[in-house]
Amino acid sequence: MLHRHFLNMLMLILVFLPVGAIADSLSERVQEHQLENGLTVLLVERHTSPTVAAYISFRVGAVNENSEQRGIAHMLEHMLFKGTETLGTRDFEAEQPLLQEIEATGAQLDGLKRQADADPDELERLRTRLDQLQLEHREWVVKDEFSRIYAEQGGVGFNAFTSKDQTSYLINLPANKLELWAAIESDRLRNAVFREFFTERDVVQEERRRAVDIQPGGKLYENMLATAFQVHPYRHPIIGWDSDIQGFSLPKIRQFFTDYYAPVNMIITLVGAFDHDATLAIIKEYFGDLPAGIKVPAVTDSEPPQRGERRIHVDFDAQPRMMIAYHKPTLPHPDNDSFDLLAGILSQGRTSRLYQSLVVDQQLVTDVGVFTAPGSRYDNLLVFSLLPRNGVSLIEVEKALEAELQRLLSEPFSAAEMDKARRQITTSLLRGIRTNSGLARILSIYQVISDWNYLVTYEDRLNSVQSEDLQRVVTTYLHRANRTVATLGRGGE
Question: How far are the Cα atoms of 237, 242, 253, 488, 492 from residue 318, in angstroms, in the given order?
């Protein structure tokens, strides 16, 4: 599956970009519909190839989890690939009693593990029994049946991803297989069976170990977020903390699914070679009678203004590196547009300001990046990521970056470099939307965060950003009291 976790927003940085020459046509080509049950449908006919990119997105991600649910959105994404009452099983009626026994035994084992004075013999007995039951259960499971059916029918890229802000399920398939897609995906929503839960929980535990616990970049990023955000749930990892994963249970999974996977929180985006009216009829037939559900409640935890610099050092056996993060507003705040342009000027390409200064001229770092994280539905961070050259201290790199930020105030941005950044941003977007899947992804993300129409007016807003706007956001936001400095390396800070 396609998981982003700690680098999720590095990918999304290419999403929050202007539409350029196609802005006007998007407003006419994207057909938006709202079904009676609240389901949002975005349809874009594009007859360049006989294929369709299909995205189903939910306005729910890690940001919507409470302290009892951390990591559940991501775990649920895993479980929704395990089949339904008709797919993924040889005989669900015969399988169901075994599933119930597995759940009861696993829950009993989990409960005993949490007891400080647990009987070791009883623990071993339950582990053995659970292993036996799961071995028996394999006889009833048809592994990866979703993937097999889609592949046999010409589908590619069957995947999913969970971010802070959303969860999406995607596939690219021949245009004449749209009804098959609708039948499979609506069945996943109506009749999902969360089989192989305990083995999949172990898979997620290992995924965390590989992506975070033994990865210096993942470890640094996770600690930076937990330090920069003290109240807002953006501070928590998408995959969950280690103890969260150990505490996952089937009742928690089912409750999250029931609460949030409903049409009022759902967006279907189709881009490709289809007939609009016939396709809308298919969607209404297969998804239109789903119960509307209840909207995901807005996150009410508000991050208070930061009143002083925060620092954290991670002792890790790896090459030293650092991240410096500043709190900033998100869209539709007008300063968000200025930050997009500022990030492009500072770090996009080998001719950018920071690359030329820190990598080429001063030779202090081997890599420098600027990106928005960790989500965009709520106020977020502008993050500077720096990897020092061998022999260069983190202190030297930090001072050099501070000098560059001060230079932004003393040397006004030229029209030439601002125009160059705008062109680079436009080119990045155009590359992203050349494919059906790229356009479907971007429309889905914007619709979750704000509204896909934001794309239509974005270029005008970006073009309206002036040099004094960039200097104002540097003065307002990029100062010591508003920043978190996170470093990683062997030994002390």
Answer: 21, 21, 36, 8, 13
- Read off the amino acid at residue 277: D
All CATH 3.30.830.10 domain ranges in the chain, comma separated: 5-287, 310-489
71 near 200, Cβ under 8 Å?
no
Q: For residue 115, report the phi and psi dihedrals to the nearest 5 degrees.
A: -90, 130
What fold does the segment set 5-287 form as a domain?
Cytochrome Bc1 Complex; Chain A, domain 1 (3.30.830)
How confident is the model over 215-244, as a mean pLDDT?
A: 97
- State the pTM of this model: 0.93
What is the sign of the dihedral through the CA atoms of 54, 56, 62 and 67? negative
| 389-420 residue pLDDT tens | 999 999 999 999 999 999 999 888 899 999 99
Element at 226 (helix H, strand E): helix 216-228
CA-based torsion, 344, 350, 352, 356: positive or negative? positive
Do residues 319 and 220 lie in contact, with contact meaning Cβ atoms separated by under 8 Å? no
- As given in the structure block, the two tokens for residue 192 are 């999902």
CA distances from 146 to 6, 40, 128, 465 (A): 28, 24, 31, 47
